[in-house]
Design brief:
Distance between the termini: 53 Å
Number of domains: 1
Helix content: over 70%
Low-confidence stretches: none
Number of helices: 3
Mean pLDDT: 92
Number of strands: 0
Strand content: under 5%
Radius of gyration: 15 Å
Shape: elongated
Order of helices and strands: HHH
């Protein structure tokens, strides 16, 4: 019982940290876009999107997974076409 509670808390803490790290990286992506710092902005957005996709997986939230999978596909297509 105690072990499963500790695992749940560890998972919750890891998800919390991932959520905030991915958010901060995406904010950095917006900032680098504002200052014209390509392609750094794209790489930051990719890291943030992957982070938020992982959060969606951990939360079992299909809406979060869907929107970030679509964004990743669009960014990947854009990178390949440029």
């Amino acid at each position: 019982m105690v072990t499963s509670t500790l695992r749940a808390l560890d998972r919750e803490a890891a998800t919390f940290a991932l959520k905030w790290a991915a958010s901060l990286v995406q904010i950095a992506g917006y900032a680098t876009t504002a200052f014209g710092m390509a392609p750094l902005n794209i790489y930051l957005f990719l890291v943030g999107l992957i982070g938020w996709f992982a959060v969606g997986v951990l939360w079992k939230d299909r809406a979060i997974m869907l929107i970030h999978a679509v964004a990743l596909a669009a960014m990947g297509a854009g990178l390949l076409s440029s």
